[in-house]
Amino acid sequence: MRPVSVIFGRFLGRCSSLQASRQLATGSTCTIRDALNQALDEEIRRDPNVFLMGEEVAQYDGAYKVSKGLWKKHGDSRIWDTPITEMGFAGIAVGAAFAGLRPVCEFMTFNFSMQAIDQIINSAAKTYYMSAGKVTCPIVFRGPNGAAAGVAAQHSQDFSAWFAHCPGLKVVTPYNAEEAKGLLKASIRDDNPVVFLENEILYGQPFPFSDEAKSEDFVLPIGKAHVERVGKHVTIVTYSRGMEFSLEAAKELASIGVEAEVINLRTLRPFDFETIKKSIMKTNHLVTVETGWPFAGIGAEIIAQVIESEAFDYLDAPPYRVTGVDVPMPYTQTLEAAALPTTAHVVKTVKKSLHIQ
Amino acid sequence: MLSRLSRRSPFNTSIFRSFATARERDEFRLQEYSQKYLGYRKAVFTEKLEIIDSSKAEAVPIYRVTDGLGNFIDSSQDPKFGKEMSVKIYETMTQLNIMDRILYDSQRQGRISFYMTNFGEEGNHVGSAAALKNSDLVYGQYREVGVLMWRGFPLEQFMHQCYGNSMDIGKGKQMPVHYGSKEHNFVTISSPLTTQLPQAVGSAYAFKRQPNNDRVVCVYFGDGAASEGDAHAAFNFAATLDCPIIFFCRNNGYAISTPTSEQYAGDGIAGKGPGYGLHTIRVDGNDLFAVYNATQEARRVALTNKPVLIEAMTYRLGHHSTSDDSTAYRLDFKKVQTWGDKDHPIERFKTYLVEKNWWDDEKEKAWQKEVRKRVLKAFGDAEKTKLAHFHELFEGVYDQVPELLKRQRDELDNHLKEYGEHYPLDRCLRK
């Protein structure tokens, strides 16, 4: 599929690399884009079986410039451009993995991954099980996921729940730059197929970046959530860009004396329920935040698990979800804004949970 | 793409303006078309207005070595197998045929849930398998059992797989006939049609990265599978990535009930090959010698990283699967019988063996009896073999059993401790 967002992506790429270089000058921050680039660069160097494939990832540096400079550095055999057929190159990645390689398969955006969904679900996720552990499929399917800006229904959606639904896949959703690097490296080293969901809006955003994260050995564990902010009045569970609204909301809530605990899921599958449960048993209130659709979404799953667990008895109010609106993404700016969750929605929902007028 | 080109556009540069004559300009453009657009094929202009009518083009010829009676037409094409190999070929084809009959009947008796026979296609399985090296990686569609049998996959394992018991390599995870064996370089069969094609190209690409490893990938598919988008992607990727791969199409006339006349309008599957930049041959799929020669040559070409498409013309004598009754759409059953009587690959090959005095009626009788006995024994043993322990349910979703599944496993154990008597636990292995 030839997407509209090639043009859009190039525009974004240029803006944010400017932004990135400005931020990097301070020395202590890194953009998501650069963090991902570092992870790819290091893992390709570390393991001769790792390679990056996808549309325009080589000479063109990728539609969103995540693979910037890698082709020049590592050459055709490690970074290769594929013809345009998502189901085709996802299938190639599966076959290459069956034969012992460790492909990183970039979807220009996850919007187009639906063309390849059969290869991801029916082959990548299930072959290990169907062969009773004889055939492994170590692939990372990665690329931007979630709502972008001004690109309407077919370029702006969050498929987290789709992939998280399927056994056999691991689904990783980093928020900040350290997570982007540490979790991508862990995903590439993992022997299972991993769907690694980045966020287009966050690519150019700088985040604090520790010396530890700069190391080639920096790897974060898959399957562990992280308590990003400690609080005692309400638990906000979120991931990826939902973190942005949730942290801002927590700050705002603090000004009226509400201490929100913000949990960053980092991984959707395997799912770290223990961290959520522990937090709810302390705060007695739960709000989930995601940019995807509400029906059968990640929030729905979290709440179902809470209700089935001992944490249910600790709830002092019904758990609530903050989600995208249940419509395809409209193009017009005002409608687009109305279709997405914001910081204000999170604040309002927390207040509702705590019965604050 | 357009905007990218226009930034580097050479159209207004002095180079183009410096072409003084029309001929120079033509030459420049023809060279560009040839090198950049047409894969170095010679580009020409024509002043004749003519839309190509594909129905007028000549069909790709069908390569054969023997005639319908099994006689060699051009002796230079005789691969000269020798007695041992010829007998092994014949025995593999007949063993497959007998196993198919027994397992088909067993499904009808409700002893296994599903089966697919290979009737009428034994020649293209064994002919191609014999020409490959056993180290070559095979991706099957589902009707390529002869290939696996040629490589020595034991009868017992076929039966264990169809019963999904504890001795099955797949531990009962996959439905019947979805065989897979790492040892025999045969990838576990995938049910959704044609997913194996791009995967095979991916494996071939991995082989290409290990120079001089003397391995190709051979991927089998049917005429119906060639209609899936995956087939297009695989042909295109194999050609653009220069992969060591053989695409082996078993054109057997039917995709379940859809006849090839409704499946495509062009010159079969071989007709597509040149359009993708694939080396291509159409072969008489019931002439084992022709299939062998074609596959052997295709392997030689593929090893030089030039992908090859083989279309083997054959006929599906059986139903698609046990879920199908082909008499509902193959109304003229006489035609089916004619194919079986006049062009059966096993019979055609047998003529050769008999003429060489390597086989006779007595041997045939003894062999049939022996195979039947062996199949029935393996079948009976598989039926009696215990199923895997129920914990197998949770194994193999990931390389390590995740916490959630461990908890569910414990729950199941507790449940069975109390209510185990209501379950057929005696059919499972004890831990």
Automatic annotation (TrEMBL), chain A:
GO cellular-component term (any): mitochondrion
Subcellular locations according to the entry: Mitochondrion
Reactions accelerated catalytically: N(6)-[(R)-lipoyl]-L-lysyl-[protein] + pyruvate + H(+) = N(6)-[(R)-S(8)-acetyldihydrolipoyl]-L-lysyl-[protein] + CO2
Main location as per UniProt: mitochondrion
Entry's EC annotation: 1.2.4.1
UniProt KW Kinase keyword: no
InterPro entries (alphabetical): PDHB_mito-type (IPR027110), THDP-binding (IPR029061), Transketo_C/PFOR_II (IPR009014), Transketolase-like_Pyr-bd (IPR005475), Transketolase_C (IPR033248)
Metal-binding as UniProt keyword: yes
Membrane-spanning segments: none
Transketolase-like pyrimidine-binding domain residues: 30-205
GO BP annotations, alphabetical order: pyruvate decarboxylation to acetyl-CoA
Name of the protein this chain belongs to: Pyruvate dehydrogenase E1 component subunit beta
Protein species of origin: Mesorhabditis belari
UniProtKB/TrEMBL annotation, chain B:
Signal peptide boundaries: none
EC number: 1.2.4.4
Enzymatic reactions: N(6)-[(R)-lipoyl]-L-lysyl-[protein] + 3-methyl-2-oxobutanoate + H(+) = N(6)-[(R)-S(8)-2-methylpropanoyldihydrolipoyl]-L-lysyl-[protein] + CO2
Cofactor: thiamine diphosphate
Primary site of residence: mitochondrion
Subcellular localization, as worded in the UniProt entry: Mitochondrion matrix
Gene3D superfamilies: 3.40.50.970
Residue stretches spanning the membrane: none
Top-rank taxon: Eukaryota
InterPro entries in the record: Alpha-ketoacid_DH_E1_comp, DH_E1, THDP-binding
GO BP, one annotated term: branched-chain amino acid catabolic process
Enzyme class: oxidoreductase
Ranges where the Dehydrogenase E1 component domain occurs: 91-388
GO cellular component: mitochondrial matrix
A molecular function (GO) term: branched-chain 2-oxo acid dehydrogenase activity
Pfam families in alphabetical order: E1_dh
Keyword tags: Metal-binding, Mitochondrion, Oxidoreductase, Potassium, Thiamine pyrophosphate, Transit peptide
KW Transit peptide (keyword) present: yes
Biological function: The branched-chain alpha-keto dehydrogenase complex catalyzes the overall conversion of alpha-keto acids to acyl-CoA and CO(2). It contains multiple copies of three enzymatic components: branched-chain alpha-keto acid decarboxylase (E1), lipoamide acyltransferase (E2) and lipoamide dehydrogenase (E3).
Entry's family note: Belongs to the BCKDHA family.
PANTHER family, A to Z: 2-OXOISOVALERATE DEHYDROGENASE SUBUNIT ALPHA, MITOCHONDRIAL
Full protein name: 2-oxoisovalerate dehydrogenase subunit alpha
